[in-house]
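Predict the holo structure. Ligand: flavin-adenine dinucleotide.
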Amino acid sequence: MAKVLDSKIPAGPVPEKWKEYKAHQRLVNPKNKLKLDVIVVGTGLAGASAAASLGEMGFNVINLCIQDSPRRAHSIAAQGGINAAKCYQNDGDSIYRLFYDTVKGGDYRAREANVYRLAEVSNNIIDQCVAQGVPFAREYGGMLANRSFGGAQVSRTFYAKGQTGQQLLLGAYSSLSCQVNAGKVKLYTRYEMEDVVIVDGRARGIIAKNLVTGKLERFSANAVVIATGGYGNTYFLSTNAMGCNCTAAVQCYRKGAYFANPSYVQIHPTCIPVHGDKQSKLTLMSESLRNDGRIWVPKKIEDAKALQAGTKQGWEIPEEDRDYYLERRYPAFGNLVPRDVASRAAKERCDKGFGVNNTGLAVFLDFSESINRLGLDVIMQRYGNLFEMYEEITDVFPGDVANEINGVKYYKPMMIYPAIHYTMGGIWVDYELQTTIPGLFAIGECNFSDHGANRLGASALMQGLADGYFVLPYTIQNYLADQAVWPKVSTDLPEFEEAEKKVDAEMDRLLKIQGKRSVDSIHKELGHIMWEYVGMGRTAEGLKTGLKKMHELEKEFDENLFVPGTKEGLNVELDKAIHLRDFFTMGQLVAFDALSRNESCGGHFREEYQTEEGEAKRDDENYFYVGCWEYKGKGNEPELIKEPLEYEAIKVQTRNYKN
Ligand SMILES: Cc1cc2nc3c(=O)[nH]c(=O)nc-3n(C[C@H](O)[C@H](O)[C@H](O)COP(=O)(O)OP(=O)(O)OC[C@H]3O[C@@H](n4cnc5c(N)ncnc54)[C@H](O)[C@@H]3O)c2cc1C
C-alpha cells in the first residue's frame, strides 16, 4: 500500500481556521534569534526576499547564488506581471476569487489551504514592493494600473512594462543589500550548493562549490532553505535562463526529501518558435500580449500551405478567412484561456496542418485590431520592450503596417509556438514549507506548493514573494523555536566530511570519463527525448520508450562524456556536467510520474485521456492526490507516496472556459 503523507494543514482555507492556526505559531524569542543561523540557497525573488526578511528579523543569514550578483537570478526574466486581489478596477475581484481562479486554473490538483493563504497575502506583496520603490505602471490619476492574464475575467495583474521581474528583484535586492550592510546577511556569489548535510536526521548545512576557485566549502546552520528555481531546462530548450538547473533540489531528493508532482510541467503558448538545430534557448513573448493580441491561423488549408511555402504573408489573408480559434472554442475567456489550454489548442491547429511558418509549427499573434483601436503609442507604452525584443530576434516589428484591406490597416503579426516555461512540480513541502527532511525548507519555484497541475500567469512572482516575505519567515520559526537552545553543529563532523568527499569523488568521476561527447550534445539529445515522449502530449507507450531512451543516454553520459580541464579553478563545462547528471534524474522522475498518472490534468496531458473535444479528462476518483516520490537509488524506480487532497471551500468540477 502506498504511504500517505500528512501535510500538517490546519484544516481548510476558511479564514477563521487560518487565524486560529496563526495564534498557535511560536515565534523565536528575539534574544535567541541572534544565535540562529539560516542558510538560504538562491537569490531569485523567493531567495532574496526570504534572506532579506530573515535578516531583518534578527537571524544570521548565509545567502548563496551561482551568478555574480543576486540581481542576475533568473527571476529577472519575468516580464508580464504579478497578481494581487486589490480590486482596483472595481471589477468584482476578491481574495476568494483569486483563490478560486488559482485552484480552478491548476485543474483542482493544488492544496486548497496553501492557495487560500497565497491569495490572502497577495495584497501585502504589492504594498511591500511599492514601499520599496518598485515602479509599477500607474494610471493617469496615480492609481496602480492592472491588466489581465489567462484564466481570469478580472484585471488583477500589476506590472512594470514588460520588466516586472527585474523591477521586483531590484526591490528585493535593495532590502537584501540593506541587511548585508547591517551584517545580518552574508552573501556568497558564484557559489553552488552541491549537497545538503544531514546530521541526526536534520538538515544542518550544505557543501558548496566556489565556482571561481573550484574549492569545496562547508557551511553549517540551524536550518537550510532552498530557493533554487525550477527544472524546465531538463528539456534543454526552454524559456528559462541558461544557468537554471535542478542540482540543489535533486540532491535534496537523493538525501530523502520527497519530490512532488514532477509531471506537472508548464508549456507556455506564446514563445518565439524554434528556428534551427543550433539553438540553445527559447524566448518568451509575455502572456500580457494576449490582452491586446489576437491569436489566429488561416481557415483554409491552402492558405496555410501558401504561408508555409512563403508564397503568401499573413497580412494578405482577409478577416473572413482567419480562424481566431481560441475565441471560437472558448468564447467566455477567448485569448485569455489558461496556458495549458492555449498551448494544446495551438498544437491541435498545427497538427492539423494549419501552422503558419516554414516548419508548420507556429500560429499568429496579431495586434492589428488593438493598434487600430488604441493607436500604436498606447500599445507601445504597454508592450514596447516586448515588440523591440521580438524585432531584435526575428527582424519583424509587430507595429509595422503591412497591408490595407477594405480600408482596414493590417500590421505584421508575431509568430508564436508553445515552449517549456515553468515547473509546477517541485520538492514536497508541508503547510509550513518544510520538506520531509526536518530543518530543510523549500520556497519559490523549487517547491511544488500552490499551482496544482497548471500555473496561471503572473502567479509565480506572487508565490515566490509570498513565500519569501510573508510565509517562510514566520513558519520557519516553529522549527527554529525548538532549535534556539541547540548550538550550531561543527563543520568538522563526519557527516560534513563524508558529504564533501562524495561531491569531490563525483567531480573526479566526471572528469575521468574523457569520452567523445560534449555536455551540450548529450543535453540536447535528452531534450529531444523529453519533448518527444514527455512533452505536450504523452502516452503510456511513449513514456516507456522515453524512459528506455533516457536510460541508454544516461549510460552514454556515464561512459562517453568529455569534460575538459580540471576541478581546480573555473570550469564551466564541469558545472554543466553536474547539472546534466541531475537533469537525467529529473527527466526520469517526470516520466515516472506521468506514467503513473492515468488521467489528463493541467499541463499533464495523456492522450489516452481526453474528451471528444480534445479537452483534458481528469479522474478524480483515482488521482485526487499529490504524487510524491521517494528516491530509491540510481537506476531504480522511485516509490510513490500519496498526499490525499481535501477540498472544503471549493467544489471540484470539470474546468470550463467556454461559458
Ligand atoms: C521568460 C520568463 C518570463 C516570466 N514571466 C513571469 C511573469 O510575468 N510573472 C510571473 O509570475 N512569473 C513569470 N515567470 C516565472 C518566474 O519568473 C519564476 O517562476 C520565478 O522568478 C522563480 O523565482 P525563484 O526565486 O523561485 O527562482 P529563480 O529566480 O530561478 O532563482 C534561483 C536562484 O537560485 C540560485 N541557484 C540555483 N541553483 C543553485 C545552487 N545549486 N547553488 C546556489 N544557488 C543556486 C540561482 O543563482 C538563483 O539565485 C517567467 C519565467 C520566465 C522564464
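Residues 10-15 have pLDDT under 50 and may be disordered. The first strand starts at residue 3 and ends at 4.
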